[in-house]
Every structure is written in structure tokens, then in C-alpha cells.
Amino acid sequence: MTRPLDSLVIFIARVALSVLFLWSGAMKLLGYAGFVGYLHAKGVPFVQVGAPIAVAVEVLGGLALVLGVRIRALGLVMAVYTIVTAIFGHDFWNVTDAALQRDMVIHFWKNVAIAGGFLLLFVTGAGRISVDGARAPRLGLSG
Known about the structure:
Elements: H1 4-30, H2 32-42, H3 47-67, H4 71-89, H5 98-124, H6 131-135
Helix pairs in contact: 1-3, 1-5, 3-4, 4-5
Protein name: DoxX family protein
Transmembrane segments: 7-26, 46-67, 74-93, 113-131
Subcellular location: Cell membrane
């Protein structure tokens, strides 16, 4: 059980994490052909399967974060997804231009930090301000 302030902070964290994924997913969807081309250029395997999965994870995952639906499981899924995108999308070890490599290093570790936030959601759950919180049984004093 979480205190009301804890639930508010968890809600703010969920919304903050969701903004990045909702925006990114929408941009991928709106520029889908360019996104697929980017994945091909990065050498990502199974692009025809991976591209729609990426869009779905970002858009549906972002919505689930805001609503607080199945947050513990979602936290694990999003943590893994964020690490996978760091490896394929921010592969600084393959970049020779020093300025671009520095940028990629920053983005790689940013993704690792975001994955850490998702792991915290896995541990804390969604809090009371969520669909998960509304479903949770309440301890009452009746009886």
C-alpha cells in the first residue's frame, strides 16, 4: 500500500516517462516509411516485424503508463525495450565521428537511466492514482 503523496509522485513519474514514448511513437507512426528506412540503415534485423512492434510498444505502452494499467509487467517490458533500443539505436561503439559518438554515448546512457525508472515502476507498482490502484482491494474497517 502506498501513501497518497507516494501515489502522486508515482503518477507524475509515469506521466513523465509516457511523454517521451507517446511523442516518439506518434512520430514513428506519422513518418513510418522514414522510420523503417532508419532501421534498415542501422542494420536492425527483422525490420518488417520490429517496426510495428516498436510503434505499438511506444504508443500503447505510453497510454498504459498514463492510465496505470498493469504497471509492474509494463515496467519490465519497457525496461527491456529501452535497453534494446539503446543497443540498436545508439550504438556509439560503431561511430567514428567524435561529436556524433559523444551524442550517441549520452543517448545510450539516457536510455539506461530510463530503463532504471521502469524497473522502479516494476517494484513500486502504479500507485493509487491508476487503473491498477482502482482494481486493488482496499483494507476496510467494516466487519
